[in-house]
Structure formats: C-alpha cells, structure tokens
Amino acid sequence: MSSLLRMKTLISPTFAAFSPRLSRPTFSLPLSSSNSSIFALKNSNFRSLRLKPCSGKPAIRCLHGSPQMGAPRSPSSGEVHVIVGPMFAGKTTSLLRRIELESSSGRSVAVIKSSKDTRYGLDSIVTHDGVKFPCLALKDLSSFKETFGLNAYDQLDVIGIDEAQFFEDLYDFCREAADCDGKILVVAGLDGDYLRRSFGSVLDIIPLADSVTKLSARCELCGKRAYFTLRKTGETQTEVIGGADVYMPVCRQHYVSGQAVIETTRIVLESQPQKVQCG
Fold first, then answer.
1. Does 99 share its domain with 170?
2. Cα angle 28, 29, 32; round to 5
3. Residue that is last in its domain, among 181, 215, 249
4. Which region holds residue 210: left if phi is over 0, alpha if psi is between -120 and 50, else beta?
5. Which of 18, 54, 111, 130 can bridge 33 by disulfide, Cβ–Cβ 3.0-4.6 Å?
6. Domain range for 54
7. Catalytic-role residue among 79, 100, 102, 163
8. How far apart are the first and last CA of the chain?
9. Which pLDDT tens digit goes with each residue over 49-80?
C-alpha cells in the first residue's frame, strides 16, 4: 500500500530521442544509489522542477501539475518506445533516464515492474549499479488501472514498464494504453532468453512501437560488444531470476563456445555412474 501511495504522488520525464520539444539530445540521470532514492519536489508550481536526492523524510513526486505544464494529451497521440538487449546492457538505466526526461518536461509518470522480480524488494526498480526508482509491482498489467486508481490513471502521461518479458498481457495493455488512452509507454525488457529464443511478449509489441532501441553489453570474456545472455547454471526452465551469479553477457563467439562447454559438461555428468553410499 505504501508503494502505491508513493506511485500515486509520482511525477516523472520526455525522451530527447523521441520528443521534438526537447533541445538536449542527452541527459545525465541525477539519481542516487543510496536508500534515499526517491526525490523531493521543491517547487509546488513545478515551474523549475528539479529532482534531488532527499535525506530524512521520504521524497514525493506530485502527480497533479499546474495548468501551464501542458494541455491534456489526445487519445491519438499515444506512443510506444521499446528498449531491448541482453542482461547488463543498461535497459533499466535507459528506462529511468527517459522517465526522468519526461518528468523534467512536466509530464506525469508511473513505473511498473513484475512482482516476480523480488531481488531488490517490490517497491522499487533497481539498476545493476544500485540506482533506485519507486514503482508498482504487479502480477499482470491488466490490473494496473484498478490498482492505481482510474482517476489517477486518467492523469498519467507516461507509463514505464521494466522487466517486460514477465508480462503475458503486454501486447494488449500497450495497444490499449497507447491507441485508446493516449499514453506514452516506455517498455524495457529482454528480447531473448538464455537460448536466444523470443522471451515473453516483448517482440510481439515491436509492430506497435514508434521506436525500438537495441542495447548491447560488454562481453565478460573478451570485452567485445555483447548481444546475448549466457546462463552459467544448469537450470533449463526459461524463467530463472538472477544476477551476475547466474548470467553473463557474451559476444556471439563466446555464446556458442560457452553453450558447447555447458552442454558437454552436462553430458559428462549424466553419463557418470552415480555413487552409492553404503551405511
């Protein structure tokens, strides 16, 4: 409930790459990795909105702006922007930068993540660098309107979705929110699983997208650009939530060789007779 209240008082950003109203092509994310990771609103009129790390009281972002912040968005002006790539490519960081830009331009935002990802708690999305941002954790996106509140939803301009591969209803939600409700959606997620197969519904929303950004990481073995995620462990199910202890980004060469090593090890282990301990 506390995270929902914080989300309902959120205001957040516009993409330099996506919005012609911004003059700056880049933006440096002024977020803190400390526990005081929500930001204080200093000006109630929002004329000079600056989001700064707060000490002491938890900071708030107000959802309700003054009239000069811009006219209501028409239903036809919705957008879908998709950010994909392997693990450790900076997808969440890129999402937060774009959300920050939307906030600084006076738009109201909310951020959603899957309740399956409990690594850093359920009230924040967290980058691999430790940067936090308040969010609402949901099992499915269809419950967002009701959970967030219909009136609050109507006032939203931008919705960020992190770890989008875990939402089975991603396509329907994005289509309705952009086409019917005029929302800007920023969607970040894995495009492929550890077997380089389509992961969840992320690739299904490409036909809906106004833009698609494919990020790369750095190969952990050679330093080249990495577009693939190699699983280090022996689990074979598609969804295994973990960090650097389970996955690493790799280039094509080391993905292929790494998969061969893993498969060879598995075959060897399975072919060995199991030892029987006698009491």
1. yes
2. 135
3. 215
4. alpha
5. 130
6. 2-215
7. 163
8. 54
9. 333 333 333 333 333 333 333 444 455 589 99
Residue 168 CA from chain centroid, whole number: 15
Residue 14 has pLDDT above 90, yes or no: no
- 155 and 37 co-located in one domain: yes
Residue recorded with tokens 């490409």: 206
Asked if residue 235 and residue 206 are part of one domain, the reply reads no
**Residue that finishes a domain, picked among 194, 215, 236:** 215
Same domain, 226 and 210: no
Contact (CB, 8 A) for 84 and 202: yes
Q: Evaluate if residue 223 carries a pLDDT over 50.
A: yes
pLDDT digits (tens, 9 = 90+) for 187-212: 999 999 999 999 999 999 999 999 99
Strand boundaries in 118-190, DSSP class E: 124-126, 132-134, 136-138, 158-161, 184-189
Burial classification of residue 128, based on how many CB atoms lie within 10 Å of its CB (0-12 exposed, 13-18 middle, 19 or more buried): middle
- Given this model, what pLDDT does residue 125 score? 83
For residue range 16-54, what is the model confidence (pLDDT) as tens digits? 344 433 333 333 333 333 333 333 323 333 233 333 333
